[in-house]
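Researcher: Please translate sequence to structure tokens.
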Amino acid sequence: MKKWQFILAMLLAGCFIEATAEESLLSSDTETTPRKEWLRGHGTDQGEHVFEGHQTHDDGFIAVGTTRERNSGKGDALLVKTDDRGELQWQRIVGDKRRHEEGRCIIESPKGYYLGGIFTQGGKTGAGIVKLDKKGMIDWIRIYPHAGHGAIRGIDLAKDGIVVTGYTDYAEEEVPFIADEAKGFVMKTDFQGKPVWRRQLSVNQGTKVKVDVQNGGFVLCSTVWRFSKGKDHQDACLIKLDPNGKVEWKKTYGGTGNDQCFDMDLTVDGYVLAGHTTSFGEEGWDAWLVKVGSKGDLQWEKSFGQLLGGNPRQIFDECYGVKTITDGGFVLACGSGIEPENVRSRKDPRNTWAAYLVRTDDEGNLLWEYTHHTPNEGHNAAEYVALCRDGGYLMFLDSDNVGDMEEENMGFLKLAAQAKYK
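Model: Translation complete:
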């Protein structure tokens, strides 16, 4: 095994309250669907949204997102740290009263955590990094100067510093799903957050960025607007950068519908992207998985949706997280439900959103789906997924029925390692 393959394999290896729920299980002939180990909820009574989460070096978990401020209409960044059973160890709110902050991404370091997001300075939200110690206490905050409102949306650790991506020059303070009419950027800093270099991108935002352990440099994903076959539409975009942040190549993927990319991961021979699509699937929005080679050449793409049945034109199947598994397959964190403007029958259980995990082989073929649906209790959607060191999975949920807090909270749903058929 080559050195970079060994390093990648090691990176990919990282990562009790029973809920009344409808759990839909679909298995393949080679692998059983995992069982639920535990489900816990954390947050405040103000209402939260989770964006990203990971397993930590102590086998616990950390999640990052936002929480609303009482009576201000603003938000703060929220971090939740649990042990390996999902029991709360600490949670921290990062932000100033009546100023808008959001935590969007987080990465662990030997001395703590680096949080990326938006932090208000001089009356506008700015792209910023917060360094926290192992207990979540703030060591320092850096907000980087730029025009308009801005945000950091993706973060990773290099050997000699931090790499982040996001956008600047935006008109609104809150972070949108996709920052159209903004200016994307990528930046390298040292471990104290001091910029080493910064590059403007030819896309409106950088969404996620990773150190490219196979090919050197960095790779980042985005969503772009294109015009083809007589219409404007959105495509996924992948950009390869050299170690100094200069573009080596840029590729787009998608059809003539809208194809949005929200996450990516490395594979042993290239990259995988995930999001949702109207170009491929069953007429509505479907979860979307795209595999490309080391030079960005498209190898295959798959769509997934309608796990609860119903009219595909009414149902939105979304995906915001993807991970490569050491056997070469993939797992996607998804949500499925009927958007309010598409509701036809108030009695339809699909009006209540479901969280689901999609597991595929290395060619994108479905192995199993795990669904957490609580139509009599409230909504759930899987926003991100972590691969656990015991072979299981941790689904990070937006949930309004997990835990004893009011409003919407962060759900932590642990699935056991799946058994193999002999």
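Researcher: Any highlights?
Model: The radius of gyration is 20 Å.
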